[in-house]
Design a protein that fits this description.
324 residues, alpha/beta, 12 helices
């Protein structure tokens, strides 16, 4: 498969009064053209920071990308000026945020906001931009799109706001769509509609997708590959089938075992013992070792290398190699 985006040794830190939060500690990630990659992990593991780092939206102070490369179609996004990056946002990479209400401008109509996104990145006049905005709202299944064009965000339901956000994000047919928990604030029936919609529209415009979520059911439904994240590291990556059928990392196994099974009656759900570490003072070596049932002495001393366990399947764990 042809590579679209390569994230290499990405480190993002936040400088706070309490100390330096090492949010990302050497992330390595590839996204191929036309694929959907799921990024999963507990709250606070660095999923959203990864997305904002790719978009170069980490605000200083307190956050800063201190090292690494983010290469899109051969161009390192960390080495280009902000003015050029601004042109790439929206046209080549777009993002759907968790909370549509906080991402839409309350004082402009939906139509004017989508039209602005189009005129900023494409050489079209106002009339053509409005036509394309209407077409995008129709494409995302917005009921009574013409009426919605003239409405303000607060006049729409949560599901309609999210559809408007998707229309805006995809209006310039980006090469990569980053969807950060796109269904978190929505009820279950609307969640399913929005996920189906994102898949459908993404295929129509032939773009790749990075889907960030903590919901493994959503990943199984939508993604072709999965990256599992823990405390600022990618601990396992492979196809959805490999991750769900044959997980290697103890953390991934813990996540799988924590999913309740419909056909099995149980009095108590399985949990991963312990808590997510404080990233100001993270554990030495492998960051998962204080919670791991298979911990070895080497796990406390150094971070495990990422090793290949089968074709397309990689894991960062000393149980599967790298011990010297």
């Amino acid at each position: 498969m042809e590579e679209l985006l390569k994230v290499k040794d990405l480190k993002t830190y936040f400088y706070t009064y309490e100390g330096v939060v090492k949010a990302l500690e050497g992330i390595n990630l590839d996204i191929y053209k036309g694929e959907s990659l799921g990024l999963v992990g507990e709250t606070g593991c660095g999923k959203s920071v990864t997305a904002l780092s790719i978009m170069r939206l980490i605000q200083w102070p307190p956050g800063k990308i201190i090292d690494g490369e983010i290469i899109l179609d051969g161009k390192d996004l960390l080495k280009i000026p902000e003015e050029e990056m601004r042109k790439i946002r929206g046209s080549d990479i777009s993002m759907i945020f968790q909370e549509p209400m906080s991402s839409l401008n309350p004082v402009f109509t939906i139509g004017s906001q989508i039209s602005e996104a189009i005129t900023l990145h494409q050489e079209v006049d106002k009339k053509e931009a409005e036509k394309r905005s209407l077409d995008m709202l129709d494409l995302v299944g917005m009921p009574d799109a013409e009426k919605v064009m003239k409405q303000y965000p607060h006049e729409l339901s949560g599901g309609m706001q999210q559809r408007a956000m998707i229309a805006m994000a995809l209006s310039c047919k980006p090469k990569l769509l980053i969807a950060d928990e796109p269904t978190t604030a929505l009820d279950v029936t609307v969640q399913a509609q929005i996920l189906d919609l994102i898949q459908k529209v993404n295929k129509e415009i032939d773009s790749s997708m990075l889907l960030i979520t903590h919901d493994l059911g959503v990943v199984a439904q939508v993604c072709s590959r999965v990256a599992v994240m823990y405390a600022g590291y990618i601990v396992e990556i492979g196809t959805a089938k490999q991750i769900f059928k044959n997980p290697y990392h103890p953390y991934t196994k813990g996540l799988m075992h924590a999913i309740p099974k419909i056909h099995v009656e149980t009095k108590r759900l399985e949990v991963i013992r312990g808590v997510v570490p404080n990233l100001i003072t993270p554990p030495s070596g492998c960051r998962f070792h204080p919670r791991c049932d298979h911990m070895m002495d080497v796990c406390k001393k150094k971070a495990p290398p990422t090793v290949k366990v089968e074709e397309g399947h990689y894991v960062a764990c000393f149980l599967h190699g790298g011990v010297k």
